[in-house]
Fold this protein.
Amino acid sequence: MNTQTLPLARRADQLVGSIIDSSTSLLAQQKHDIVRFAMGAPANEAVPTDVFREIAGSIFDSESFTYGASEGEPRLLNQLVDYLATTAEPTPAERITITAGGMQGLDLACKIFVDPGDLVAIESPTYTNGSATALSYGAELLEVPMDEDGMVVEALPDLVNEAGRTPKAIYVIPNFQNPSGTTLSVARRKRLLELAHEWNSVIIDDDPYGLLRFAGEDVGGFHSISPEDPLLFSVRTFSKILAPGLRVGWVNTDPSLRPLVISAKQAMDTCTNVPNQHIVAEFIRRGGLDEHLTGLRTEYLKRKQAMQASLDRHLGDRIRSTDPEGGFFLWVTLQGEDAQISAQSLFETGLAEGVAFIPGPALSPSGKFDDALRLCFASSSPERIEEGVQRLANAMDKELAAVQGAR
Amino acid sequence: MNTQTLPLARRADQLVGSIIDSSTSLLAQQKHDIVRFAMGAPANEAVPTDVFREIAGSIFDSESFTYGASEGEPRLLNQLVDYLATTAEPTPAERITITAGGMQGLDLACKIFVDPGDLVAIESPTYTNGSATALSYGAELLEVPMDEDGMVVEALPDLVNEAGRTPKAIYVIPNFQNPSGTTLSVARRKRLLELAHEWNSVIIDDDPYGLLRFAGEDVGGFHSISPEDPLLFSVRTFSKILAPGLRVGWVNTDPSLRPLVISAKQAMDTCTNVPNQHIVAEFIRRGGLDEHLTGLRTEYLKRKQAMQASLDRHLGDRIRSTDPEGGFFLWVTLQGEDAQISAQSLFETGLAEGVAFIPGPALSPSGKFDDALRLCFASSSPERIEEGVQRLANAMDKELAAVQGAR
């Protein structure tokens, strides 16, 4: 028996899965020491595990284990509204639906807006879990190039002309983009909003890292440019600022859309898991989130600088790298002779050497960027980063020798 | 601004939401005492809250809060495989994917099998969250009548002939069906499997209550009739046997299908929330699940009998009811003069009187059964059940008087 004889939906061909997620399982199977630059996960020591365990052990009650409201637990909604009121994106409860992490926010956006055959504009490279979700609804993807100021929005009208139709949705990660680390400039955000209104396209504004700016000036969000814009579908998560295993996030949408968001969610999972909503609510209630974020920013800046220094030391001109002002990732492009190395081939050699990263093609639906790597600096200490970059250099030496020997 | 001007997907019209889930929010807003026969949730006292809190407070570690494998946490998969080996449905790990409750199992089934316009056969009445998920993928629903032996499978070929095409999927709750409480007979299960193979239809075998049989003889599952049948997509959950707020369930599918299940899940939520998987794994590891289930069966039988006695006492011949051998629900049909009462109207009056249930039309996509109610006997003590049925009788008196006065 193979799946060919099963009565699969047509979209089954477009359920492409996630190389990023699957690397979690792959790495779990390895028995040797590996420095992990692959997953975009917070450092273990950056997760308040002890506090979460203490909270769980003291506050879980019978309400923690029964069905919750589909829109989210009242105690979390209350704490979240209060917390967001202190940030650059104050958000009233009528705009919020609690989700199973940011991924479910993307699933909801595509469920509500994307018909089979619809064009969805994405950044190139992009977070391919997001583009995979669009594909799972039958989207056709329009890859838009990026530079140091994020998506090249100026290129979008011509690309749309060539495609012969306007995009139903524009998927963008405006701050410290995954995987490139770049931030979309304010001028481009304004232009993107204009285009969205011209085309009646939804902007899927995925911003998991916005609260993790550790350098430069906060440029605000889309909402500060166009308050209450109904074409903004904003996806937020506690995964990067607290812990991804909780699977707790939220969407910030036009209030008129919220009943539809809730209906769509009820057809997905009834409600977000309740105990973790209670943990997050209590963590915020105790006032610990700001201090936690300050600590993360300090630590992640240090780690980014450590990774840049290690890359300089071990690889110098063999690579060039972006210089993010926040978030988790460096986007490293091989150059000179090393540009001949295949990032996918380097992944195998790197794994054997004891270092894991995400190869560029895994971050492009069309498999571009085989000369590039996504390196997560957030998960490892400066000492481990140094060790990992040393191993990466060893792997590159081997790959380069193999490429040159093959000629 | 209203949603009419937003670029919604065509399926938005079919995102019908869940009256069942929304009753959670509705009831939370009420300030007066209400006996809750509405949600299909375990009794608070049937959830091992203290044990869960103690487990969480002692075993949560850093692995509990980072990304988990999309197929499920290894420690839960191991415990689940060992546990299921002791049941009527032994299931190897290669068939299991951990999900966000049973609802995500249904979402996965529909994502993988249901194209827009596909026919999906459902029981009538049915668990409308399941049919809503099929609708969210553009399904057209074929409602199949039920009797005391479950779905009238003999009627299915004629209904399919009338529809002019075979069903892509057949959605069935074989044990103590939600909402009717009936169990599909073995003869009908066999016939349904034959039809599925004739038509190449998937059977979405949703069995949240199978381990909660408290009377009669265990008839086994579809898998015992047709082992390793690739057309069986089996949806399982800890929601009813442990606690729904955990949002932990699993699907049991053909191993050839598992990569596709994992890919589909990665486009939904990356992985199931990790801490609750660890709680469930530890609960099973300690060996508490069998004893827990034995306790539930004893208690739920008592509560079913209490509800039947209260219905006899207060309503006698004014209603007839099913007599389930397990699970959570009685399906009550108004008869005689009371058949004139609208269950939807009775819901409002009942709420004012202090009793909540799910009116029949909420359990039929086409709004049938306005003379019927779903009563959950599992959530309330015998004393509260007596009080609730008394209030239901009062509400019926008022509704009947209103109906008769209006003539």
Summary: Chain B has two domains: 11-47+291-401, 62-288. The mean pLDDT of chain B is 96. Chain B touches chain A through 95 residues (CB under 8 Å). Chain B has 13 helices and 14 strands.
